[in-house]
Design brief:
Blueprint: E1 8-13, H1 15-18, H2 27-42, E2 46-51, H3 54-62, H4 71-94, E3 100-105, H5 113-128, E4 132-137, H6 143-148, H7 151-162, E5 166-171, H8 200-206, H9 218-230, E6 234-239, H10 245-250, E7 257-259, H11 268-276, E8 282-286, H12 288-295, E9 305-310, E10 317-321, E11 327-332, H13 337-342, H14 351-355, E12 369-371
Parallel strand pairs: 1-2, 1-5, 2-4, 3-4, 5-6, 8-10
Antiparallel strand pairs: 6-7, 8-9, 10-11, 11-12
Helix pairs in contact: 2-4, 3-4, 7-9
């Protein structure tokens, strides 16, 4: 993509970036990042920030020595820190006469169709008024989101939601490496990952989180990058300490690890299905014949189903797993998990004898399916 067409950019700021690797928020680092966002804004680009840092701000305020393990303590720190974080953003953006707005979301906001559309409309209205939305996970009520470090995945969902051209995830590393650069001196930076599937060695090298301040890690950034590039956006993972990193990336300079978009812009309904995939209700395993049919544009029939896990209802988003155990697709299912378990491997003409005459021939219709 020509960088001049990066008109809409989502920027994810991790805790390690906002603290500059210290135990507290770094106003110096934040004012530098805000200055760069203001420059992008002055270029008539739409910018949305997905910002971590609320828990770190709460720790600083209450003098907590370390990140606690208990969920209520994390939620308490987030509740204390979120208004302090927003107050600092307001002060810094006011230097450039820019208005910001706080938007708190959970993954369930983006899994329900009505709430998904409301969230999109709110962000669109803010951007139309040249307001800079600052999005954060609603950590005070979202237990699972804190545990998973989902501000990374949230940034991909917001990218999908507003149909952004580019997602930039800033972290404490230069990008994605062939091994952990903190422990392996032979690790080298990967400049681009364009394969349809992120290579297994890259996942293995990413490991887990090692940060003492944040709750994410390189694994969640890879997950987010994979989701965003499947919705038609470019993704870059780069270092937040790199001088002028945002303006240089927007100008097309090669920094960090670049993930080109895998598909053209996706239609709205399929964007919702992909977004809903982060609130997955279960998985359906399929055989090789079903995989082949799906890749050719077919629907999923019960004869191609080999297994069902989890609990889901009609209309829920589920994950489809191929015979090798990889994620093949996501879609809106026509059966409950209980019903589907009764017709696994059966032909469509046999459904009526098991469940009655009111059910669909397809487990998932091709129009409600997004291949990955």
């Amino acid at each position: 993509m020509n960088t001049s067409s990066y008109r809409s950019i989502v920027i994810k700021l991790g805790t390690s970036t906002l603290t500059a690797g210290t135990a507290t928020l770094s106003p110096a680092r934040m004012v530098e990042l805000v200055r760069q966002v203001a420059q992008l804004h002055a270029q008539s680009r739409q910018v949305v920030l997905v910002s971590s840092g609320a828990i770190a701000a709460g720790r600083e305020c209450l003098s907590f020595p370390a990140l606690p393990r208990e969920m209520p303590a994390k939620q308490m720190l987030s509740a204390v820190g979120q208004p302090r974080l927003m107050a600092l953003y307001e002060q810094l953006f006011d230097i450039y006469k820019l208005t910001v707005a706080q938007v708190l979301l959970t993954r369930t906001d983006l899994a329900d169709r009505s709430r998904y559309l409301n969230s999109r409309n709110t962000l669109s209205a803010l951007l139309a008024q040249r307001v800079i939305p600052i999005v954060n996970e609603n950590d005070t009520v979202a237990i699972e989101e804190i545990r998973l470090g989902d501000n990374d995945n949230l940034s991909a969902l917001v990218t999908n939601l507003i149909e952004a051209d580019l997602l930039v995830m800033l972290t404490d590393q230069q990008g994605v490496f062939t091994a952990d650069p903190r422990t392996d001196p032979s690790a080298r930076l990967i400049g681009e990952i364009s394969s349809r599937a992120i290579p297994k060695p890259v996942w293995e090298a990413a490991g887990g989180t090692s940060g003492k301040l944040g709750t994410g890690g390189m694994i969640t950034k890879l997950q987010a990058a994979d989701l965003a590039r499947h919705s038609g956006a470019a993704v870059i993972i780069a270092s937040g300490s790199e001088e002028n990193v945002l303006t240089r990336l927007a100008a097309g300079e090669a920094l960090g690890t670049h993930f080109p978009p895998l598909i053209p812009r996706m239609e709205s309904r399929k964007r919702f299905i992909l977004a809903g995939g982060n609130n997955l209700h279960g998985t359906i395993s399929v055989d090789a014949g079903a995989e082949k049919a799906l890749r050719k544009g077919g629907s999923l029939l019960p004869v191609g189903v080999t297994g069902v896990t989890g609990r889901f209802n009609r209309g829920d988003t589920v994950r489809l797993i191929d015979p090798d155990g990889g994620e093949l697709a996501r879609g809106l299912v026509n059966y409950t998990s209980t019903e589907l378990a009764q017709i696994v491997g059966k032909k469509s003409k046999e459904i009526e004898a098991v469940l009655g005459p009111v059910y669909d021939d397809e487990v998932i219709h091709r129009n409600n399916l997004v291949l990955l």
